[in-house]
Amino acid sequence: xxxxxxxxxxxxxxxxxxxxxxxxxxxxxxxxxxxxxxxxxxxxxxxxxxxxxxxxxxxxxxxxxxxxxxxxxxxxxxxxxxxxxxxxxxxxxxxxxxxxxxxxxxxxxxxxxxxxxxxxxxxxxxxxxxxxxxxxxxxxxxxxxxxxxxxxxxxxxxxxxxxxxxxxxxxxxxxxxxxxxxxxxxxxxxxxxxxxxxxxxxxxxxxxxxxxxxxxxx
Length: 218
Hints:
CATH class: Alpha Beta
Strand content: 15-25%
Number of domains: 1
CATH topology: ECO RV Endonuclease, Chain A
Strand order of the largest sheet: 1-2-3-5-6
């Protein structure tokens, strides 16, 4: 399998630094009213990156797209000169909050997307703190999902299942190959689904009791 030069020659680390530098160079873009809203900050950061990512990334990017529906897999996407296609999920996190468990993507969507070795699903995670109305970026991760260790991931029970970061204050990066990560992914799902079946059986049993209770009433 041919690998992306961006990720397997560590060029992504420079891009992380460039994104952080760009965001911290921006004038204050939040109002007193919106700075208290993590969603408003997330939307503002995503909009800034959508408008400027091609410039920040430079000659890495050939075809670029930043217009997607709200529920789409991508917030941004681009193709490089080698024909690799990168779908980017932008995530923001206030490091002063104690806990945050964001969804990354659907397990079923990811498995279909990764049937093509030239596709990369990328997490662009921006960690920030607030200084008055100013958003101060402390750290940026720009990595394919297979660089995220399963030590910091979990599965949420929505639809087929949602891959989630267990705690945004702890993101563990390991530069590993996709095959190894996907096998771990499958093992995780093969443990997750039986546990969900057990939960469902208990819920069925519970509502059978509820039904009998109501049937006994006059």
